[in-house]
Write a structure and sequence with these properties.
Strand content: 15-25%
Strand order of the largest sheet: 1-2-4-3-5-6-7-8
CATH topology: Rossmann fold
Number of domains: 1
CATH superfamily: Alpha/Beta hydrolase fold, catalytic domain
Number of strands: 8
Helix content: 40-55%
Order of helices and strands: EEEHEHEHEHHHHEHEHH
Distance between the termini: 27 Å
CATH class: Alpha Beta
Radius of gyration: 17 Å
Shape: globular
């Protein structure tokens, strides 16, 4: 399905489950799209939730804007909820999607029931974080798409997740590399640390251990700055944990959602 944003952009989205059930919106990461959530569009409706899965602007079947900004993505989510006549929602976001979740809660705090932030961060501050972020941007700028795709697929294959690598390889080869670079640079500038102490909603921060200590530390920093946030490390998980360890991920998320929004 398609809806038009206030800045006249066509965005694609799907819904799964019964609209009378508690709504959950799933927000994908950079370079992905709604199909990244294939395991969850089965498990969450099966557990009694109404699931909304959009393609972010510039991703999947959604239109590419002139400029990519995370604040605009958060506004798109709000406008999609308005379009669907949904006032309050659970938000789940992986990687860049986790940043958009935090931005949404900062911009529209009364619309969020809870937030689940996965394999993500709240800003880049330490020198090692800035170095890694800058290196990721340089690789996108310098390496041809086929080489980038090969590197991504190889990294997931080493983790015995060739299917996940193939998915991201395919998405990368079908996405304008200049657009991916623009999105990456926006991610590198993201910083919502000052807003975290104001987020007085139930929060779950998840991070996989497959991408190392730095990823864990960045996720832990997010959890430590949000009042009452739960924090959990997923063994074998990593960006995106919803695909690397889907059964573990689904059970943890469903348990968390059931604590916040008992079903009728």
């Amino acid at each position: 399905m398609i809806f038009q944003t206030s800045d006249d952009l066509s965005l694609y989205y799907e819904t799964h489950g019964k609209p009378t059930q508690p709504p959950v919106i799933l927000i994908h990461g950079i370079g992905a799209e709604h199909e990244m959530w294939k395991p969850q569009i089965t498990s969450l409706p099966g557990a009694g939730y109404f699931v909304i899965v959009p393609d972010l602007r510039g991703h999947g079947k959604s239109e590419v804007p002139n400029l990519f900004r995370i604040v605009d993505c958060a506004r798109d989510i709000k406008e999609l909820l308005d379009h669907l006549n949904i006032q309050h929602v659970h938000l789940v976001g992986v990687s860049m999607g986790g940043m958009i979740v935090q931005q949404f809660v900062a911009q529209y705090p009364k619309r969020a029931i809870s937030q689940v932030i996965v394999d993500s961060l709240s800003g880049i501050s330490r020198p090692i974080e800035r170095f890694n972020a800058g290196l990721a941007a340089v690789l996108l700028k310098v390496f041809p798409p086929k080489l980038q795709a090969y590197m991504i697929r190889s990294s997931y294959k080493k983790m015995q997740h060739d299917d996940v690598g193939k998915y991201f390889e395919d998405r990368l080869l079908h996405t304008d590399s200049r657009w991916l670079l623009a999105a990456r640079l926006e991610v590198n500038q993201f910083n919502v640390f000052d807003e975290l102490p104001k987020m007085n909603i139930p929060t779950l921060v998840l991070v996989g251990d497959a991408f190392g200590k730095l990823a864990i530390d960045m996720a832990r920093t997010t959890a430590e700055n949000i009042p009452g946030a739960q924090f959990q490390i997923l063994k074998g998980g990593g960006d995106p944990s919803n695909l690397l360890v889907p059964k573990i991920f689904d059970q943890i998320v469903i348990d968390f959602l059931e604590q916040q929004s008992p079903k009728q």
